[in-house]
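ok, trying the design again with the full structure, not the truncated one.
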């Protein structure tokens, strides 16, 4: 059943979508103002349309996009509609990214914008162009991007004939940070503070001018934080121009698309891409916080690699992170979840047993042990692969165990077992006292086996 917050009354602009490729607007529900600015909706952003756009639009060059766009929808008919975004997300679950993009742009028109990071989310711009509708693009210039990314921004602007709306951090906040903590404080005390100043606050400002935004988030980008992204949702973290909870809608048109399919699309459509991709970068962010990854590594392992996997959201999509506090805030919540890793091949350690086991100098066998909480969606997501791992290791000299490290066991696990988040996976070598923490976000059987083989 949809939750109460899933249904929000939104003012939608209806009847104001211009017909693609029409040279004038005849819709009775639409009045253009000023009449001299005839926008061929859908032509904006298309290379072949630039001459038409220039002939038709009398606003200054620098204001072409926003000026004409605003003029085109200056007096739309406003219709009050109730939209249940949980239902809409379900309706669109099998829709193509192009259909989703078209729906989003049609619904929100100039009150929606694409968030562009300078990586493969350029696919969003291509999809927007293909809809034939006007669209806006914004980007966060943190001041720490790679030179290649700045050049790519320029290339994208020229390729699509658009102006990206750049958002910059507050200069006084950046000054205060780097004067007090230096240029690379994020390596010392985590990326959150720097990201808050350089990314989150500028994003908050950008979103306050919108009713909806479009992101390139995909479920396969991070098993830890992005595995449940819906196609469309009420933004759980930010507010839109009307203010208050529920005032901003977040569209994720490629949520269900794999990275492989995105790249097939980019190649097929001959879309320009950031040259960093050809140097081993998959996910691209700020220069000091992004690195190339090796074949087989997950793309998010190239971001903030010195930090725990679950902390790897920069705040732009912090609603993806379900913490112990948000997920485990009541007895009812925890009472209703099922136990995990119910395999005959997995031994459940009690607190006394794990304490004794962890203190052994030598063991009869090596062990791989998952520290988990039954309510944790990341633990739930890896249950099948961990059970399969246990089955494959049956009869070998590597045993498999689990320890429920939630509630009263959590302080112990955090202090003694290197746990920072659920799940934490540890390899106890039979010859070493201290366990080795599994460092990857890849939680498939082959990755687990490769880890074990490397340590055996
Ligand atoms: S990604 Fe790194 S450099 Fe960029 S804002 Fe975050 S911490 Fe700062």
């Amino acid at each position: 059943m949809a939750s109460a917050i899933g249904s929000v009354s939104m003012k939608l602009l209806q009847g104001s979508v211009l017909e693609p490729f029409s040279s004038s607007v005849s819709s009775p529900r639409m009045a253009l103002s000023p009449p001299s600015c005839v926008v061929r909706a859908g032509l904006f952003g298309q290379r072949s349309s630039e001459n038409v756009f220039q002939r038709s639009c009398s606003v200054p060059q620098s204001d072409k996009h926003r000026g004409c766009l605003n003029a085109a929808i200056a007096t739309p008919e406003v219709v009050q509609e109730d939209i249940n975004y949980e239902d809409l997300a379900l309706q669109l679950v099998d829709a193509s990214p192009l259909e989703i993009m078209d729906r989003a742009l049609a619904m929100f028109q100039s009150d929606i914008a694409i968030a562009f990071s300078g990586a493969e989310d350029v696919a969003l711009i291509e999809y927007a162009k293909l809809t034939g509708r006007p669209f806006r693009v914004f980007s966060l210039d943190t001041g720490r991007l790679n030179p290649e990314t700045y050049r790519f921004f320029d290339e994208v602007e020229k390729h699509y004939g658009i102006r990206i709306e750049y958002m910059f951090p507050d200069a006084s906040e950046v000054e205060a940070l780097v004067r007090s903590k230096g240029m690379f404080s994020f390596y010392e005390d985590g990326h959150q503070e720097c990201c808050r100043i350089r990314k989150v606050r500028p994003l908050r400002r950008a979103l306050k001018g919108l009713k909806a935004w479009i992101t390139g988030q995909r479920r396969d980008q991070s098993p830890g934080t992005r595995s449940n992204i819906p196609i469309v949702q009420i933004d759980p973290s930010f507010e839109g121009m009307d203010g208050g909870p529920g005032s901003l809608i977040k569209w994720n048109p490629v949520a269900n698309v794999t990275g492989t399919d995105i790249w097939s699309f980019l190649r097929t459509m001959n879309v320009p891409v950031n040259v960093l991709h050809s140097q081993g970068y998959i996910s691209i962010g700020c220069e000091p916080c992004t690195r190339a990854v090796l074949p087989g590594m997950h793309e998010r392992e190239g971001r903030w690699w010195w930090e725990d996997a679950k902390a790897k959201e920069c705040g732009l999509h912090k609603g993806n992170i379900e913490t112990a506090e948000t997920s485990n805030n009541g007895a009812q919540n925890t009472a209703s979840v099922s136990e995990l890793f119910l395999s005959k091949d997995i031994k459940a350690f009690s607190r006394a047993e794990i304490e004794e086991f962890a203190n052994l100098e030598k063991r009869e066998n090596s062990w791989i042990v998952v520290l988990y909480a039954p309510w944790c969606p990341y633990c739930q997501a890896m249950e099948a692969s961990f059970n399969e791992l246990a089955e494959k290791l049956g009869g070998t000299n590597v045993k498999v165990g689990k320890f429920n490290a939630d509630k009263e066991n959590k302080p112990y696990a955090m202090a003694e077992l290197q746990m920072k988040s659920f799940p934490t996976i540890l390899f106890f070598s039979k010859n070493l006292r201290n366990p080795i923490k599994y460092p990857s976000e890849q939680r498939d059987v082959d990755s687990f086996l490769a880890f074990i083989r490397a340590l055996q």
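Keeping the full-length input from now on. The first strand starts at residue 7 and ends at 14.
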